[in-house]
Write a structure and sequence with these properties.
The chain is of the alpha/beta class. It has a single domain, classed as Aldolase class I (TIM Barrel, Alpha-Beta Barrel). Helix content is 43%, strand content 15%. It is built from 12 helices and 10 strands. β2, α4 and β3 form a beta-alpha-beta unit. The mean pLDDT is 95.
Length: 265
C-alpha cells in the first residue's frame, strides 16, 4: 500500500485496529437535525472520546476548529433531501481538489443497492475511487437504504458491502443486523457499524455495538445514538470503552452509569 494511503488510514483507524467515527453530516439531507442545530457546541464535549469526524465541507469550515481537530472524513455525496422524491438520487458534490484543500484523511460516499439509482451511485463510488486512489485518499462507502429500513438483513447488507469493496472502497460503513458476522466475513475490507434510527435506550446501543465488534467489525460510525442521547458524554465514553478497551455490554453500562452520576452530581 502506498505510504500516503497507509498514513491516512492510520489517522482514522487507531493502533489497535479499531475506530470510533462521529458523524455529524446529517444536515446535508435533514437540515438542522435535533441536537445538531449548533454542531460546534454539540461535539465539543465528545471529541476526546472519538477518533474522527464524518462531516460536510460546509460544517467543517463553519463549525470545526482548524487548530484543534480530529482527523476528518469528508462527506462528498448529496443532492437530495428528506422532502424530495428519492434519497437515493445522489451525485458526488465535492471535487478532489476540495478534498485535498481541506486536508481530509478520508472521504465518504453513499451507495443505494437495489434502488432506482443503484447504477448511478455505484458509478459515483467507482469514479470517486479512481480519483482518490491517485492521491492516496481512502474512500469509505456508506451502504445507505434511504427510508426502506426493512432491507437491513445480513443477506442484503452482505451484498452491499461486498460490492462496495469490489469497487475499491477502503472502508465500508453498514448497519448492524442479526448474523452480522456473515456481512463482515464476505467483505474483504474493514467494516464499521452505522447507528441508524435512534435506539430507545443506551443499553440497546451498547448491545448491538458489542455484538458487532465480536462478529468482526472494527468500530462504529454513530451519530444520533450519541449526540441525541440525554447523556451524550456518558454514552460516548461507554462506547469508547467497548471499541478500544474491550468492555462488554455490562461494563459499558457501568461506565455510562458512573459518568452519568458524576455529571448529575
Amino acid at each position: 500500500m502506498d505510504w500516503g494511503m497507509q498514513n491516512r488510514l492510520n489517522q482514522v483507524i487507531k493502533d489497535d485496529g479499531r475506530c470510533f467515527f462521529l458523524p455529524i453530516d446529517h444536515g446535508y439531507f435533514q437540515g438542522p437535525t435535533r441536537c445538531l442545530e449548533n454542531p460546534a457546541e454539540t461535539i465539543k464535549p465528545l471529541l476526546s472520546y472519538c477518533d474522527a469526524l464524518f462531516v460536510t465541507r460546509g460544517v467543517l469550515r463553519s463549525a470545526i476548529d482548524a487548530d484543534n481537530s480530529l482527523p476528518i472524513i469528508l462527506r462528498v455525496s448529496g443532492g437530495t433531501s428528506m422532502v424530495g422524491k428519492d434519497l437515493a438520487n445522489e451525485e458526488v458534490t465535492t471535487s478532489i481538489e476540495e478534498v485535498i484543500r481541506l486536508n481530509a484523511s478520508a472521504v465518504g460516499i453513499s451507495i443505494f443497492i437495489g434502488s432506482d439509482y443503484e447504477r448511478q451511485t455505484l458509478l459515483n463510488l467507482s469514479k470517486l475511487v479512481n480519483k482518490c486512489e491517485r492521491y492516496g485518499i481512502p474512500v469509505m462507502a456508506v451502504t445507505a437504504v434511504g427510508k426502506e429500513l426493512e432491507k437491513r438483513d445480513a443477506r442484503y447488507l452482505g451484498l452491499c458491502c461486498r460490492i462496495a469493496a469490489e469497487l475499491g472502497a477502503r472502508i465500508v460503513k453498514t448497519y448492524w443486523c442479526p448474523d452480522f458476522d456473515k456481512v463482515v466475513d464476505g467483505c474483504p475490507v474493514p467494516v464499521v457499524m452505522a447507528g441508524g434510527p435512534k435506539c430507545e435506550t443506551e443499553k440497546q446501543v451498547f448491545e448491538f455495538v458489542y455484538d458487532g465488534m465480536q462478529r468482526g467489525a472494527i468500530g462504529i460510525n454513530l451519530g444520533r445514538n450519541v449526540w441525541q442521547s440525554k447523556q451524550p458524554v456518558a454514552t460516548a465514553k461507554a462506547l469508547q470503552a467497548i471499541i478500544h478497551k474491550g468492555a462488554d455490554t455490562e461494563g459499558a453500562q457501568e461506565i455510562f452509569n458512573q459518568t452519568k452520576n458524576n455529571e448529575d452530581s
